[in-house]
């Protein structure tokens, strides 16, 4: 989504510089003076995370972009972990290869998934699983039985993919960029943000744990569910834990839909979108509030110096994602994942062309108009 240019602010520790003092040189890996330093916020959304895969692939091949940190939830957390693990071994190109391996492996396992499109869906080029017998059956079972009843052995196919594709030790060792993964503490109702030092496969699983499908993931004696309920993704670690004021949100959950949902499926879909956008809306409102204080010069010392101007950017395909229902988040067919990757690459390319010069200078999205 390409927005208007507005400056926003948010409380933080030190004031960072938006434009990096240097970046990557394509041939030698040396520093380039034209580079811009950014932090990334990656939303969760199941298979729709392949859109973010495409965005990351495009950003990582651009020598003018330096990624300082990534905050991710659910599928966004998987993307962030794969990026960090690959980056630790091979820099930006290593990150691209690791992301490719993760999503290609995910697609290869889709042949065994009970969630398959019907023949008519395939012929008509529809990606949703609304008519899939497997999806409809699991939706019904999920309404009648908890995962503790329907899945007593707590089988989680995602654990196998993560164990094969994500090198947790490499993620922890990566110091070229910082990593933040959010999960929701079931007992307290509060978000927990895992950084590299305390990240684990369990933390990644917790960040993607939908309570109607899987048993809560226990970490340090506490149960955790999907991080999207409390931070999809969490923005505040990028504000308080990073120097760059430029935060790029990769949006995969539509914010707005026209009309009133009338069928049960439409109502469920819209409730899902609103629920998983709620925490993001709250954080953006806080950013807009501080923005007004800064614009009105309402902050005085010694408090004014504790705040820094945040520059917010957003890469997304609102129209394209609106055409996809929630059921397509369970569609891990290789063709669909590649389709989303291509859409993400294209969208990121258009955003870079339109807004690269905004990085380090101004926001490229109107926070108040978009989120308030």
Main sheet: strands, sense, barrel: 9 strands, mixed
Determine the number of helices (DSSP H or I, runs of at least 4 residues).
Answer: 13
> What is the element string, with H for helices and E for strands?
EEEEHEHHHHHHEEHEEHEHEHHH
Shape: globular
**How confident is the prediction overall: mean pLDDT?**
88
- End-to-end C-alpha gap: 16 Å
User: How much helix, percentage-wise, in residues?
Assistant: 40-55%
Q: What is the SS-derived class?
A: alpha/beta
Which residue ranges are poorly predicted, with pLDDT under 50 across at least 5 consecutive positions?
Answer: 1-22, 25-31
Q: What's the number of extended β-strand segments?
A: 11
Can you describe what's shown?
This protein has helices at residues 49-60, 75-108, 119-124, 133-144, 147-150, 157-165, 168-173, 201-207, 236-240, 264-295, 318-322, 334-355, 367-371; strands spanning 8-11, 23-24, 31-32, 36-42, 65-72, 178-185, 191-195, 217-219, 222-226, 246-251, 307-316. It is an alpha/beta fold. α1 crosses α2 and α6 crosses α8. The protein is globular and about 60 Å long. The model is unreliable at 1-22 and 25-31 (pLDDT under 50).
């Amino acid at each position: 989504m390409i927005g208007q240019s507005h400056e926003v602010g948010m409380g933080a520790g030190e004031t960072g510089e938006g434009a990096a003092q240097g970046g990557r040189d394509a041939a030698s890996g040396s520093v380039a003076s034209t580079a811009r330093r950014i932090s990334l916020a990656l939303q969760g959304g199941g298979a729709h995370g392949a859109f973010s895969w495409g965005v990351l692939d495009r950003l990582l091949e651009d020598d003018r972009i330096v990624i300082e940190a990534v905050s991710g939830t659910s599928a966004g957390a998987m993307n962030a972990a794969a990026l960090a693990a690959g980056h630790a071994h091979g820099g930006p190109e290593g990150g691209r290869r690791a992301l490719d391996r993760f999503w290609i492996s995910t697609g290869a396992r889709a042949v065994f998934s009970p969630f398959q499109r019907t023949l008519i869906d395939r012929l008509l080029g529809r990606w949703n699983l609304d008519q899939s017998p497997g999806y409809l059956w699991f939706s019904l079972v999920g309404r009648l039985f908890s995962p503790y009843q329907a899945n007593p052995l707590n089988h989680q196919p995602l654990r196998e993919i993560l164990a094969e594709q994500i090198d947790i030790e490499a993620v922890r060792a990566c110091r070229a960029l910082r990593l933040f993964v959010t999960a929701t503490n079931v007992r307290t109702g509060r978000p927990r943000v895992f950084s590299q030092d305390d990240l684990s496969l369990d933390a990644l699983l917790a960040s993607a744990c939908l309570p109607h499908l899987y048993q809560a993931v226990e970490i340090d004696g506490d149960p955790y569910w999907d991080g999207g309920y409390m931070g999809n993704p969490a923005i505040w670690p990028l504000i308080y834990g990073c120097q760059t004021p430029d935060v790029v949100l990769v949006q995969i959950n539509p914010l707005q839909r026209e009309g009133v949902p009338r069928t049960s499926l439409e109502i469920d879909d819209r409730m899902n979108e609103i629920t998983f956008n709620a925490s993001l809306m709250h954080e953006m409102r806080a950013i807009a509030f501080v923005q007004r204080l800064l614009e009105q010069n309402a902050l005085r010392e010694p408090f004014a110096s504790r705040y820094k101007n945040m520059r917010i950017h957003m890469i997304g395909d609102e129209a394209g994602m609106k055409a996809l229902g929630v059921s397509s988040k369970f569609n891990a067919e290789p063709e669909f994942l590649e389709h989303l990757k291509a859409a993400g690459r294209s969208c990121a390319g258009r955003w870079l062309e339109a807004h690269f010069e905004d990085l380090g200078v101004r926001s490229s999205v109107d926070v108040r108009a978009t989120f308030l």
